[in-house]
Amino acid sequence: MSKKIIIIGGGAAGFFAAIRSAELNPEASITILEAGKEVLSKVKISGGGRCNLTHACFIPKELAKFYPRGERELIGPFHRFCSGDTVEWFEKRGVPTKIEDDGRMFPVSDSSQSVIDCLVGQVRKYGVNVVLHHRVHQLIPPSETQKRWQIHTKNQLFEADAVLVATGSSPAMWQLIEQLGHTIVEPVPSLFTFNIPDKRIRELPGLSMPNTSLSISGTKLQANGPLLITHWGLSGPAILRLSAWGARELAQRKYQFTLQVNWLGQNPTLVREKLEAFRQDFAKKLVLAQAQFGMPMRLWRSLAFNIGISESLRWAALSNKLIQQLCDELTQARFEVNGKSTFKEEFVTAGGVDLREVNFKTFQSKLFPSLFFAGEVLNIDAITGGFNFQAAWTGGWIAGEAIAERLNYE
User: Fold this and answer.
1) What is the mean pLDDT of the chain?
2) pTM for this predicted structure
């Protein structure tokens, strides 16, 4: 009788695990159970429909640093299947990739459909059964009288010798896993933007600064990078990094806190010295006539207006007090954050299966040797840039391999 593998969740990790298991154990019967009407839905929308497959960071220990939760646990797995392996895997199967300036990696086609077609094609090649509209509502482990897992959906009962849960951030599945005895770390949003109702930026959506430094008052949270002004506040890579590393702390604060912005990412003392030099060099020129430090004109004017600099004020007339106030506005501006907004469709949560209860050599449950986890069902998450997908590919690959090896030896 052939071994049966059930994979719960038709996303990146689930497909990768199914393919790897099928490669190593072609005699096994493998079924992917997907609750929705289509598989790989997150792959489809990733990167604005282009699919940010992974990131061009090829050193395992360095790659792991992009994961606020999971850094320590992922170093070993990344030594076995890293971003370079992902690129090679897809290129060997007809999906060449490219690296963008910020390190993100996309298929050359700039279409997530090429990634989906590749994964679906591999699953078909190996005869993996994909079943849609099958939401699991009961998961019964093996016992002395029942040797296999029993997986109940509304439509059907499935049995399996091994089960992989790869359902992403699914509260319903977390509840079933908790009923098995696993600890679930309470999920909170991880990637989000900051709502800031402030007159200085209210009329400036779409403007950005490339090299900002951010910190949150009363915490150790800091981030550097591009900053984007939006209709509701602030976004961009620097904000998303803060939200990822501060996910739990900011949730505890109910997303009410003070954000300090250094628009220039430069030392305040040096900025003050430059402003004093401008006062000398541009003495007869109007302060608001030309933006400095490479800032967008509208942002420069808005920050200057905020401290009382008028249209007619010339650099020579700037008092020491105004020089300091302008320096503070450029390098230590304080904004009151009042709430958050989810980052596009790419919703990521911090939370999931407690990492202490998983063997990361196999992505195997420490409570049930025939139960495995991969992807965001675990308490693992990363900043944007292809890192969450890389964790899914790595976890799926290793779990799929471990399942096949386990069943081959039974």
Assistant:
1) 96
2) 0.92
